[in-house]
Amino acid sequence: MIEPPYGVIWNRLRQGKVVPFLGAGASLAEVDASSLWDAASPDRLPRARELAEVLAGEASYPLSGPSDLEDLAKVCSYYADVAGRPVLRERLREVLNHVYTPGRLHHMLASVPSPLTIVTTNYDCLLEAAFRAAGKPYDLVIYPTDRKDLANAILWWPHGASEPVAKVPNDLDIDLATTNVIYKMHGTVDGTDPEWDSFVITEEDYVDFLSRMTVNTAIPSLFFQHFGSRSFLFLGYSLRDWNLRVVLKNMGKHMYSRRLIDQEEEGPLPSWAIQDAPTELERRLWDKRGISIFDVKLTNFVSQLEDRRAAAAGRAG
Questions:
Q1: How far, in Å, CA of 283 to CA of 264, rounded?
Q2: Tens digit of pLDDT for each residue in 220-243?
Q3: How far is CA 207 from the centre of its chain?
Q4: Of 65, 80, 96, which residue is a domain's last?
Q5: Same-domain status, 86 and 210
Q6: So what's the pLDDT on residue 192?
Q7: What is the per-residue pLDDT across 247-267, written as a single tens digit (0 to 9) for each?
Q8: How far apart are the C-alpha atoms of 6 and 197, rounded to whole Å?
């Protein structure tokens, strides 16, 4: 089995030349596959299917078979239809707004010496907690699905701010060379104030988000400019998720044209996806997007990067 180029990845990461993309698997990397989630007394975040099962039960979702529970977006759409969007938001907050423990991946990213722009589709606050634990300042940027008055804006919390600033996406001005940024592409649960909770989670939410991507109002242009000179590292994603495939396709329209122009003589920058037991279809989908896929457990991958970080620190000491 071909292993990831751990040294190359760590070197580019420590230099701030990698954009990590974190999916749902990144928040559950250290969870035992056989463990069951207890909705009444959760000690970890739920898997998508576990959350779908609870919401389907509460909303009396008309299941046609067990596979229906694989589609969390459809279950959430039904829940919102029968109970209302505010009730769905309250229930999601009840599930997600607990003091969950960041994993080694989150702590590893927070330990990187150079500023990073990290993109995540997770609603949890594990990354933020890891950066706070490391004493690292960061700016937070989110996509605000649940605020119709902010339909063409993003929300930006400069480091230390108690409330966000609403910005037209292409007016966002952050010095990414000196600032850690966590961009929560699908919203967030706010740890202190439910007013700022926002979730891209129903089918309609995904359609709205993707339509905003097509007119360049979902992702700040500042980030696209940054992406054009960075490698990408996908952690906890599966391309079985059609939403991610469409997001990558739309992002590629903005990123890869510039990358090809800038690097036509030198070749494209490397990008990687780390995924446990990818299917042959997923391998082909990643490859088609110019991303090298490696069949490695996320915990093992993090261990390798931790070893390289420790070795580098030893040499520096």
A1: 25
A2: 989 988 998 999 999 999 888 777
A3: 18
A4: 96
A5: no
A6: 87
A7: 887 776 655 554 554 555 567
A8: 36
CB 290 within 8 A of CB 256: yes
Same domain, 25 and 157: yes
If asked whether residues 64 and 113 sit together in one domain, one would say no
Same domain as 83, residue 161: no
The pLDDT score that the predictor gives to residue 261 is 46
Whether residue 91 is found in the same domain as residue 107: no
Burial class (CB in 10 A: 0-12, 13-18, 19+), 211: exposed
What the block records as the tokens of 233 is 């590292």
For the stretch 26-35, pLDDT in tens is 999 999 988 9
Task: Write b or e for each residue in 216-242: b if 16 or more Cβ atoms lie within 10 A of its Cβ, otherwise e.
Answer: ebbbbebbbebbbebbbbbbbbbbeee
- Look at residue 38 and tell me if it is in a domain: no
Give the torsion through C-alpha atoms of 248, 251, 257, 260, to 10 deg: -50
Count of beta carbons in the 10 Å neighbourhood of residue 192: 9
Domain that residue 63 falls in:
48-96
Residue-averaged pLDDT of the chain: 91
Task: Report strand pairing: 117-120 vs 198-199.
Answer: unpaired
pLDDT at position 122 over 50: yes
**What does 64-101 look like in DSSP terms, one character per residue?**
SSGGGGG-HHHHHHHHHHHH-HHHHHHHHHHHH-S-PP
Burial 76-110 (b: 16+ CB within 10 A, else e): bbbbbeeeebeebbebbeebbbeebebbbbbbbbb
Strand spans (E) along 73-179: 117-120, 139-142, 154-157, 165-167
Among residues 62, 96, 130, the one where a domain terminates is 96
pTM, 2 dp:
0.94
- How many CB atoms neighbour CB 25 within 10 A? 20
Has residue 128 got a pLDDT over 50? yes
